[in-house]
Amino acid sequence: MPDSTTEVPELVQSITRPRTPARIESFGELGRGGRLGSLGKLRNLGRSDRPVARQRFFWAAVILAVYLVEVAFRLYLVRGEVAPSVGPDEEAYLVVARVLAGGSVTASPAGVVVPGGYPLLIAPALAIAGNPVTAYRLVLVTNALLSALIVPLAFVALRRMRIGRRSSLAVAGTVGLLPPVVFYSQFAMTESVLPSVVLAWLLCLHGLLTDHQKRQDDRTQLRARYGVGFGLAAGYAMSVHDRGVVLVVVSIGVLLVALVRRWVPSRAALAAGVALAVAVLGAELLAAYLQQRFSDTPPATVGQFALNGLLNTSLLGRSTGRVLGQIWYLITSTWGIGALGAALCAAVAVRRRATPADRVVSAVLLITVVLVAGAAATALPEDHRLDDNVYARYLSVFAPALFVVGVAALYRLRRTALLRYAAGALALIGVCGGGVFLLAGTRLRHDLFVLWGLPDSSFLAGDYQTFHLVRTTLAAVAVFAVCVAATALLGRRRGVRSAVVLLAGFAVAATTVITVEISEPQQVPRWLSMGFTRAAGLHSGDRVAMSYSLPWVLKCEQPFELYQERMWILDFRRAPVPPTADVAVLPARRGAPATSSWPHVPHGWHVAKVDRGEGFVVWRR
Fold first, then answer.
1. Residues of the domain holding 615
2. Euclidean distance between the first and final Cα of the chain, in Å?
3. What letter does residue 69 receive in the DSSP assignment?
4. Whole-prediction pTM value?
5. 482 and 385 assigned to the same domain
6. How many angstroms separate the CA atoms of 333 and 56, rounded?
7. Whole-angstrom Cα distance, residue 313 to residue 318?
8. Which residues contact 554 (CB under 8 A, 6 or more apart)?
9. Which of 86, 257, 580, 613 is the most buried (most CB within 10 A)?
């Protein structure tokens, strides 16, 4: 973050506090020379407080209005969505949410128990819904409410960087429209909430490290509050996704260094440490509870995959290419503004004149990005998907923070400094793009192209069937160059306003086009998700055993689509049918009678339905 020696206000007051010419320390300053008596002082104080209260109410109302507009925009984009379409991730979170809402345990579509932090937020939607369609739509409403929280948080971050209220509000609204922020909220995925959690984590860290201009006791108490928020945000992130483990590790390191360097009062550091410990304990207890409920399902082993990949030196080139690819995607998906933010953070992190809060938060942001990229690079399997080399999803949670810093640079830097940092941003884009081309060149041409995994690059390249590294890079650089040129040529006031208008319009266009070209085709109701239950003759109360040999998509979707029922996925040749199951679904054999689908059928089972077109046989007991 840029240099700042000014007071960092409290979280709520930073949104609404008006600019006052001076701080009034006592009533005596109101009536110098005896012009006002005691009653006059009190009356004058009351008059001065009324405009302050009105301004606070006004700005709070304006921010709330922008937030609601952002929510409405998200809901409009998903108005036709009725079923999950990104398997097995969506279905896995929905199944866990159903259990947390008091529903029955069923098969985990992912084959492992996923973290419960995000399902905990959407569980109320499943608790009040009576069918999967209504439940999924309520989940999307929840996602919109969670995703739009990035707007007030971005506003606070910009105010801390001494950007005016009107400008901060305009930029914060633009941040809320970015495709990396909106796209994933259109699905039941953790990225609906994680960007806001990450930005809140960074803001609380900045507040914890800042020496506020208050009385000593008030300063310590305020910093302790920020410390509690810092610890809780990191611990909650751990309960949401494995990336949260990186936030917890970084948080522990920051607290230890801050104590050694005496950047933080011991009471505030203790509050942060206790909050972090409590949140981590809560995450572990939630994971243990879910593991106990899903006793037949193994826990996730992402951490072990990451460790194995890190220790395997033969994969060093592949992992390095993946790290560069993820960073390249992050900075191009923010059209170079994120790269400018990264360049500024790197400079502030090593600048001795910067405050400890600015230096530490800048360094923490960059370190966390690299660590998450490294963990993802080693943990992702070798499944020959092109997007594994330029993975978009895992670093998308840092896009708002880097974008905010990048736009603040447009406002704060003089022309020469801006051009210097812009050159650094272009160098970062070039190094990452060149590294990806050299280390993953053949894989970018021959691996499987998955459109859902490459939304931003497909939009920038204008091609939704093929990946284009160079074309995507040039498009992002063009948007970035226009913003920098406008700021440099038109001046910081007119130029930055023009750049923000351009970015806001481009964000709306990009998000809308990506929804039409990528999200909506994913969300078109398919027979497997919407018609199987009816075609198979399943009804409320059925307990279904489904064969491993059935189509993968069907096995992913049905644990959620069978909304009130219990489901198992098993190999009928090796595993016995659960004693409580009363329905079995197996693949039909072509040109053979239906009874041949289950050669060693136990006594008491009979064929209830055959669908040769879709290739399944339903047995009942």
1. 529-620
2. 66
3. H
4. 0.89
5. yes
6. 35
7. 10
8. 528, 532, 546
9. 86
